[in-house]
Each structure stands twice: as C-alpha cells, then as structure tokens.
Sequence to fold (579 residues):
Amino acid sequence: MRSVPVLACFAILSFVLTAAAAPPATAPVTATSRVSAVTVYQGSALVTREVSVPEGVGMMELIVTPLPPQTIDSSLYSEGSDGVRIMTTRYRTRAVKEDTRAEVRAKEEQLRTLHGDAERIQREIQVIDQNLAMLAKLESFTSATMQQLADKGLLNGETTVALTKYVMESRQEKAMAQVGLQQQLRANAEATAFAQRELAELTAGAVRTEREAVVVVDKTNAAAGTVRLNYLVSHATWRPQYKLRAGGEKDPVQVEYLAAIVQQSGEDWGDVSVSLSTAEPMLSATPPDLTALDVAVTAAAQAPQGGPALSKAWDAEAARLFRDGQRKANVADYFAANADVNAGAAMRQTVEMLGAAEDVAREGPSVTYHLKQRFTVPSRSDEQLLEVARLQVSPSYFYKAVPVLTPHVYRQAALVNASEFVLLPGSATMYFGADFVGRMDLPLVAIGEAFTVGFGVDPQLQVAREVIEKNKSVQGGNQVHEFKYRIRVSSFKKEPVRVQVWDRLPRGEAESVGVTMVDTTVPLSTDANYLRHERPANLLRWDLTVPAEANGERASVVEYRFKLEYDRNLALGGFKAGK
Fold:
C-alpha cells in the first residue's frame, strides 16, 4: 500500500477541522429571549435566559442580544432541549452609536431637548442684553440732543416726555423678560442635572458597546423550540435582613426573613424565579490539583507567636484566597485559581498545626434559597428587599440586667429555629407590638439551633448596683482587698418575671493575683452553658424570679463578697476590659 505524505495528512486534517467549525449555511437569526431565572450570589449572579429557536431542521446560528454590560464573557454556556443540540456558544461585542435600551434612549432624548432649550434661552438673554445696551445708547443720544435743542431754544416738551416714557417702559419690559428667562434657565439646569443623574444610574458601568451571544444549534425536530443561555454578571450581591415582631407572652414571635439585593448589571430581571446563594458559583468542570506543602524553619525569636488573633487573621486570609481562586476558575484562569486554593489550604493547615484552631470561628455553611414566588428586580443603585420566608417562633421570655454596664433592664426571648431555613448572620429590626425598639445583629442560626434575641428596654424594671463595704488588710505576705456589693432589682409589673442579673469579678493576668468569691446571698446560676463558657472568665450570673410589684423595700436584692490577694511587694496596676 502506498503511504500518504505527512503534509498531505495535515492538509486533510485542516480541511476536516475547518469544515466542522464552519458556521451554518443559513443566515444568522436574531432570536427573541427573556430572563427566566436568576441565582444571586454574594458578589455575582447567574442569569438564565430562555431563547426561542425558530422552526426548521439542521444547523442554525442564533444571535442573542443585547447582553448586559457586566456580563463575564468567559462564563457563557447553553443547555439544549428535545431535538435541539448545542454545538457552540460564544460571546462577542460590537460598537453601537447609542444605548439600545428604550429607557436609556428616552432619557438621552430628554437631555438633548433640555440642552436645546438651554441654548435657546441663553440666546434670548443675549438678545435682551443687546437691546438694553441699545436703549442705553439711545438714552445718551437723546440726552445730548435735548441739551443742544435747549441751548437753541428749540426743545419740544411733548417729544421729550414721549421719548423718556418709551425708554423707561422699554427698559422695564426688557428687564422683566430677562428675569423670566434667567428663571427658566435655572429650572432647565436643575432638570438637566436630575436627568443626568437618572441616566448615570441607568447606564452605571455601561459603555457604547453591544454585547451578544452567538449560539449554534443543530435541530432534528422541525417544530420551534427553546434553549437556555446562562451567563454570570458582576455588580450583583445580596445580604440577609430580618424583622422580628413580638406580641404577648404567649404569642409567637413573627420573623420576617428578607434579602436586600443590589444589582447593577445593566439588565432588568422582570418576573423571574430568584434563588439566593452564599456559595461561590462553580463553573469549573474539574477539581483543583493538589501541590506539595513545603515547611520552613526560622530562628525561634523570629517565629510568629500563634494565638487566637493570629489564627483568625490566617483563617480570614485563607477564606479570601479560596474565594479568589473560585472567581479565577469561573473566568477560566485555571493556573492562578489552582495557586490560590492551594495557598488558602496551606493557611488553613497552618492554623490547624500552629494556631489556636479551637478559637477560630469557621464560616457558616453554604446555603441556597429557592424563593417560591417570582420577582421583578430592575438594575439600579439602591437596595431592593425580597421576602425569603415568614416564620412563627414560640418564645420563652426573660429579662437581662447588667448594672455594671447599663442601668436599663432588657427584654429577651429565647427562640429555637424550627424552620427549614438556616438563618444567616445579618442585621435585624426589632418590634414589640407596633413599637420599634431597636436593632441588633443576628448570628448564624442552624436549623434546630437555639438563639436569643432582644426586644429593647422594659421601663417597668429597674436595677441598681453599689459598693456597700470594702476593706484592706495584710495577711502573711499578701495584701488583701475585700469588697461587698449589693444589686437591687425593682419591678413595677403586675406579674412575676424571670431576670438574669450579670456582674463580674476581676481576673488576674498571672498567678501572682488571686481572686476568690467569698459568699453570695443568692446562688449563682447552674445553667450548663454559663458554667462552661462564662464562669471560668469570672463572670457572675444570678437567675432571679422577681415577684410582681417588687419595688421599694420589697425589691429583690443580691449581695456578694469577694477578695483580691497579691504579694505585699507588688501594687495594683489598674483594671482593663478583657476579650
């Protein structure tokens, strides 16, 4: 058999590849499309468009236009349907003379009209200025002429009066017209400035470029069909917000879970299915490659001292690297993405092996909420609120007093998240009945997890704290300070209430300072969480049941005594708030 030359093989292969990549024989079709679904991430959004495919069989080239200004060009991909197979999806741009959106064109036309009106008004003002200048010249000429006629005894009184009246009336008429035109010019300037601000909001981030998707499909079904075009856009994000409303003691707490969305993609989302996600969009088809983990040693004096603060800094840097790596993967920068995620993992391993890992608060779980109803979210600069869910939670009310920090007593509610939603960290607006009582930051609350919220100050409860005794002595080789405090809780309520009362003892930074609780008239709380977390830090908590109308001599009282000891050769250096 005769062999085929190598160059001939390359030529044949080139012809085959060129033929496979060639565009369809039919003319490109500008397809109609609409945004049908959006998944909003915290920094971007994945938009899904339903694209109409016309009747016919064979290869077709569909033009989807316009795409929004903030489209990430490498993120486009398409999904076919029965009888419609996706061949290629690509992104392209072309220069255009003006923005193609109707609202932008209308605003630009309004600005052109306003600019034309301003030019006309300015010209009319210039004409009036010229007329006033001519009247001034006429007045000077008339004055000189009358002087000459008076010198010759030929001055006509009626003519002088008529000419004077004409000059005065003309000047007044021109001055009034000038004032009116200047007022019109100021109004025009204000309208122009406002229209320019509106146009800037509509075209935020946009340039005079049309962005298009070209989708090549192969149809085996002659009937019309649809395909789905997906793409990421930047300048979109969301954050959780809450409204909590408390009623009577036995009424459930109403929790409104809201999402504050900001989207300036340049494209309005009209009547779409909305999903909200805390994850990073995952457009990479393969996992990152694991690289070696190198370890280095240095002099002990130069080594970083691991601790909670440094561990948190390392962990925050690791989270940033993971986010950056995923974003780079989404724009097909795979080499840089792989480097970032490996660097982030190395930071996490540093925390595991050298840091105080138990003190590092890990990020919450990645969650996605599929909202049940459809929404319209226009592209604009301000936040737009959507309702994620409306929950009813059974409360267990109590009150909290921290007299060393504030003289007020706060109404609290212990709740359990019995819903199907993870409550992400966010700001909450609190209401008691119809009254606004304040704001708070809601922490991450998992499904089934207990949490506590506050509903503001209750003026019918009062708390006071005072030192009633203090002594100083020397015992052996130590100085001893002994203190006695009294905390008084007064109630003007018609029913008994549960009150948590909090205070604190000093905490010695070293073993050279000893702090001992001597006695208390009311036992400290036996709550397991308190004993595990707060009591070791010398924080004190008493759980009181304060009777109705317990005020004046009937107020509930807590007294406690503690002593502070240190070497007689040392001196107290003061007190400061810990962490």
Summary: The longest helix spans residues 102-152. Helices lie at 6-21, 102-152, 157-202, 308-330, 334-354, 528-534. The longest strand covers residues 461-475. The two ends are 86 Å apart (CA to CA).
